[in-house]
Amino acid sequence: MTPPGGLQAPPGGDAALRARAARVIPAGMWxxxxxxxxPAGYPQFFSRxxxxxxxxxxxxxxxDLMCSWGxxxxxxxxxxxxxxxxxxxALGDCLNGPAPVMVELCEALVDRVAHAGWAMLxxxxxxxxxxxxxxxxxxxxxxxxxxxxxxxxxxxxxxTPVPVGTTEADRANQLRFDYxxxxxxxxxxxAAGHDLAAIIVTGFRHDNVVDQEMPSLAFxxxxxxxxxxxxxxxxxxxxxxxxxxxxxxxxxxLGVDPDLSAWSKAIANGHPLAAVLGRDSFRxxxxxxxxxxSFWCGAVPMAAAVATLGEMDRIGLPERLAELxxxxxxxxxxxxxxxxxxxxxxGPMSMPLWLFEDDADFARGSAFCRAALAAGAYLHPxxxxxxxxxxxxxxxxxxxxxxxxxxxxxIAA
Length: 413
Ligand SMILES: *Cc1c(COP(=O)(O)O)cnc(C)c1O
Hints:
Distance between the termini: 30 Å
CATH architecture of the largest domain: 3-Layer(aba) Sandwich
Helix content: 25-40%
Number of domains: 2
Strand order of the largest sheet: 4-10-9-8-7-5-6
Structural class: alpha/beta
CATH superfamily of the largest domain: Type I PLP-dependent aspartate aminotransferase-like (Major domain)
CATH class of the largest domain: Alpha Beta
Order of helices and strands: HEEEHHEHEEHEHEEEHHHEEHEH
Strand content: 5-15%
CATH topology of the largest domain: Aspartate Aminotransferase, domain 2
Bound molecules: pyridoxal-5'-phosphate
Shape: globular
Number of helices: 11
């Protein structure tokens, strides 16, 4: 099939690319992006994207509700971001040190996030969460970090959900608690004793395969109080939620400010960038730790981030995504009722997760997503999805039409 828009035909369809990949890439694809983790029929390879849509390597177009698993927040090929990228590319990207745009971006981040007195930039979310933990240990001179059971903080040995090839020692000095459970957090703090360096917690609970939960006020305030009492750092991992819920840190919605925060996904509308933001009281520790990377000074992603943050403010991003997501959620609720299928929608409007009742083996979720895919919507059966600002009401209607095919597939099964 020829993709629309007069583009050249892709170099090979999905099946041909998978066969070639199987020869030169272990298992054909690594990690969570292995399409075999998705229901049959999902493509592995994508050829292009525009606004709220993606095209697979066979030229099929979908409304994109994964948004590259979070980074695409304004829409694919946002014209303002593309222009900033082109302008910085013409000047230089990977240089002997940072370009002026680094200072501009750090000023913009410090300006918009309440607790931030300073910013440091990296590439991936895992770089940022790791740096937060390192800075917290450097600042406190202690070791123990409290992590919520099931929360994802990245794929490095200290935090990977799949510990193959890592050692117990990689995860030394960690204790677990349950998200939104004040008693379990208090128990973990007590167990840490005088060695508590930090509590790290995601902006909201978005663990794979379970209903999403917003942080309760009591939980957020307890985390703050316990860190203050112990002289430990409260770290918010806002890598996934950051900027989609609020202009600043997601916990500002609760009036609770962390000491350190980790950012990535939406920060530069798809360009590789991450950030650590911190309070002034952690500035000297942040200055002492040795962190760097070959590509961390890349100026083009920083220019993309400056443009992305500006556009987020211009369009009122969180409100816009919440409105669009509310429309989608109401439509989904109506369909679930019409087809008498138990559907649980959880999480913020802009990052929906759809799980079906009586679906322990995900047969319903898989049938639903497979049918929706065939009808032109790229959804996920187990992971939260993402809206972007280029999505329109018409796109949401197209998703709802595809979802209707999904509900029909469930009741036909
Ligand atoms: C994606 C994610 C990370 C890791 O980011 P990478 O860019 O994949 O290294 C960390 N924390 C959360 C909450 C994430 O969603």
